[in-house]
Automatic annotation (TrEMBL):
Encoding gene per record: ORF53123
Location of the MGAT4 conserved region domain: 1-188
Keyword set includes Glycosyltransferase: yes
InterPro entries registered for this protein in UniProt: Glyco_transf_54 (IPR006759), MGAT4 (IPR057279), MGAT4_A/B/C_C (IPR056576)
Keyword check for Nucleus: no
Top-level lineage group: Eukaryota
Protein name: Alpha-1,3-mannosyl-glycoprotein 4-beta-N-acetylglucosaminyltransferase B
Keywords (A to Z) from UniProt: Glycosyltransferase, Transferase
Listed GO MF terms: acetylglucosaminyltransferase activity
Pfam families on file: MGAT4_cons, MGAT4A_C
Ranges of residues in domain MGAT4 A/B/C C-terminal: 202-345
Metabolic or biological pathway: Protein modification; protein glycosylation
UniProt GO cellular component terms: endoplasmic reticulum; endoplasmic reticulum-Golgi intermediate compartment; Golgi stack
One BP term from GO: protein N-linked glycosylation
Length: 377
């Protein structure tokens, strides 16, 4: 570890921790449950205690705690994807899941970790960690006076899953001697048909005819892509900000790998500002964007055209300097299309984001709140 990760060790990014011997109870005198042999009960109990120790140790180091393993692989740009998903949560949550398997890729707020760990410690020898998590959620949000369906809805409201999965288990040999673990996360291999970003609050509207449940609001929130039938001349998509905001950059990507032809053609990006922009500046913006006379002439009244979708179905760039706050960003179709259209990615940057420090380790520490399980309880 020192040879391969010396810089990470020195910076505090990587720490090697070992619990005190006293932290563990007697693991040779455990009650056998669920038909598991003694060795398996011992293994899963120690694993639960290891999870608890890691969570307690990591709790004061960041705003969020994510449980990972040493035998997983991750999707590209997974950290930014996780940050974005966290930012999009408008209602309170207990756990965010970035993998469907076991306890891999589970995120908690550090402020909740102590309570979660206390529950794990109370039942550390009874069940595996993922089963204990299920019970904890039931205790937190389910009412014994309601039916099972109500309970499931309540749990789903605080246990939210990101798809496709960001982490895949690649290990085969378990730390339990003789145990082979071949489980794979089926969602990990699914192609990314959309991409999420933390977009600012906006009122969305469109004249396009939406297909099934592929709604505009869902692509804006990063939940899926937007899909609509053949665009016609004059069709628009509006993103209205109330109050108006200062925007730095934008990106609109149409089409995806399953439907690469469902892209915007002869379509421009327009903005409506709160302040009047002088004509010479508008002319300069249009010139830099390389827009033709027809695109300029057909621009919506009181809107400034700033870009067009390219042949690949992508429109991106910076909002021109000096235009002030933006009230509306508009996608404006100038020609009827024979193909349907997909919006697979929307990114509008307003300079508001979760800092990296919220996810990164802090100063190296030897802190652990409890010397033993009995002390913790």
């Amino acid at each position: 570890i020192k040879e391969s990760f010396s810089s990470s060790l020195e910076s505090g990014l990587l720490e090697v921790i070992v619990p005190r011997v006293e932290f563990y109870p007697n693991l040779d005198n455990l009650k056998e449950t669920f038909g598991d042999p003694k060795e398996r009960v011992r293994w899963r109990t120690k694993q639960n205690l290891d999870y608890a120790y890691h969570m307690l140790y990591g709790r004061p180091k960041a705003t969020y705690y994510v449980q990972l393993e040493d035998d997983v692989i991750a999707k590209a740009d997974y950290l930014n994807t996780m940050k974005t998903f966290v930012q999009q949560q408008k209602d309170d949550w207990i756990m965010l899941e970035f993998s469907a398997l076991g306890f891999i890729g589970k995120m908690f707020k550090s402020s909740d970790v102590s309570a979660v760990v206390e529950f794990f410690l109370m039942f550390h020898s009874d069940k595996p960690i993922d089963w204990l998590m299920d019970h904890l959620l039931w205790v937190k949000v389910c009412s014994p006076e309601k039916d099972v369906k109500h309970c499931q809805r309540m749990i789903q409201s605080v246990r939210r899953r990101y798809k496709p999965s960001l982490f895949q288990h690649i290990g085969v040999e378990s730390s339990l001697p003789g145990k082979v673990q071949k489980l794979k996360d089926r969602d990990f291999g699914k192609a990314g048909l959309y991409r999420a970003h933390a977009n600012p609050p906006a009122d969305l509207s469109t004249t396009l005819k939406t297909y099934q449940n592929f709604l505009l609001g869902k692509v804006y929130a990063g939940e899926t892509f937007f899909w609509a039938s053949n665009p016609s001349k004059g069709d628009i998509i509006d993103f209205k900000f109330n109050p108006p905001i200062h925007i730095d950059t934008y990106l609109f990507r149409s089409g995806h790998m399953d439907h690469p032809g469902d892209v915007f053609h002869n379509t421009t990006i327009e903005i409506q500002t709160t302040e009047k922009v002088i004509q010479s500046k508008i002319d300069n913006i249009i010139s830099k964007a390389g827009l033709n006379k027809a695109e300029v002439a057909n621009a919506s009244e009181s809107f400034i055209p700033i870009a067009r979708f390219n042949e690949a179905g992508l429109a991106q760039g910076e909002i021109p300097d000096g235009v002030g706050n933006i009230q509306i960003i508009r996608i404006h179709v100038h020609e009827k299309s024979n193909a349907w259209v997909i919006l697979s990615e929307i990114m509008i940057q307003e300079n508001k984001s979760v800092t990296s420090a919220d996810f990164a380790p802090g100063i190296p520490s030897t802190w652990c709140p409890y010397r033993s399980i009995s002390e913790a309880l």
